[in-house]
Please model this.
Amino acid sequence: MTQPSDSPVELELALRAAREALGQPAEIARVRRGLDLRIAQGSMPLSAAGPGAAVWPKLVLLGALGAGGLLYATWPSAAPPQPAVTPRTAAVATASAPDPRASAAQPTVSAPAATSASTPAGTSASTPTAPSASTPAASPAAAQSRERPTPRAAGATATPTPTATASTPAATSASAPAASSAAAQNLVARTTEENRVAPVPTPTRHDPELELSLISRAQKELRTRPAQALALLSEHAARYPSGLLAQERDALRIDAERALGHVPEAREHARRFIADYPRSPQARALSRWLAQPMAAVHKSEPEDRPTP
Amino acid sequence: MSAEPLRKSLPPPAAAPVRPEPRADFDAIFEQYAPYVLRVLPRLGVRPSDVDDVAQDVFLAVYRSLERFEGRSSLKTWVYGICIRVAMNYRDRAHRRHERLIDAPSEPSDARTPARSLASQRALAALDRALESLSAVQRNVFVLHAIEDLSIVEIAQALGCSKFTVYARWYAADAHVRKVMGERPWQDDGT
Model:
């Protein structure tokens, strides 16, 4: 590189500082974890819609809020303006509209609009290939969006995502954007009628989007609030002990424990991680870390700790 | 020279597996280039808070395109070329959203190394301001040459333009940065 002799001192200083600002190990590990997560979920560009904007978790959250709002509006005890529903009105409503039980009986995991909006075409000129079809977390939604393409991306925020669909059949039917208000009222009537007999049990089935949102939130919290991240990871472990992202959870838990100074626990979990996932990219880094003596580990912890 | 593309276009022998383990190659590339990608992105105008996400975009592109990498340029220039394109894409989006990409002047422009001296932080902040006043193409050339130490030929390969174009951009960018940095008042500010 050519450096003329008359270059100002401050420029030399700035260039030297810029050259020394290589990525730190904690930063590299953070990028690696996020990258592995994105590769696992189908290479969804987080910053596609804006700089640093993790769009799809926001869409999931908005969808959950929308579904929650619809659930609140349709919940019998929380809807005082609803007229008193008698079996006759329920029967009339059922006869005049498609049977909602059909949609309720098939709790489809679908977030077509949200998924398609979070992966706009041409988001990056250097990432032209399609996501691989073998990704478990994104494949149901991708299949849905192929079957029923959504022409308007603006409808994404209003479309409920399956985050809340597991709670009641009402929320499940909300995943169909074409559901008419008549069908919703019909569903209210039926739900009211059924709830008088027996409360609807909460289905406990696996929800990939919710699992993903837990891990993503934990990953973001790790930078600033590792204790909160650890709580989220514990919640994930309780909900999905052998979930799709169990490996990611275990790796994040080690980082959170290291960030909190729980070195013995972190080392124990690191050993278990290496035994469980010997071919993981993190396993090599963890092996190097474990190879250090405890005193050196304690000394080096602040540097390795995720920076805010 | 003319036989080289012809040889590459021929199908490989059936017995020779083509990249049997691309993931292993990718791991090696990530380990080798991640520190440099994280270094160059802030200088290309990526906000420190967005560096992680944009670096993931870079390596995602590397991961997807690795099997199509033909070795016509070195791996280093290829990765830097992807960095440039992803960063420009990021800046275009930020421009469309009318976002301001530089932090407040009082903050250090790069919070990743808090132990850095105050003088270095100020100098780096001044450099970032100077880079911000360059055109995108001049900025790319200046960063790759002055900070990342790529040669003019390597930059031409990474950017896909002629080396004369790179020279022209380098001289214009260098003169501009020196002019702007020379006018900074902070150099007498007790450093």
About this structure: Residues 11 and 104 of chain B are 55 Å apart (CA to CA). Residues 22-94 of chain B form a domain with the Rna Polymerase Sigma Factor; Chain: A fold (CATH 1.10.1740.10). The helical segments of chain B are 3-9, 22-43, 51-65, 75-96, 118-132, 136-147, 152-159, 163-182.
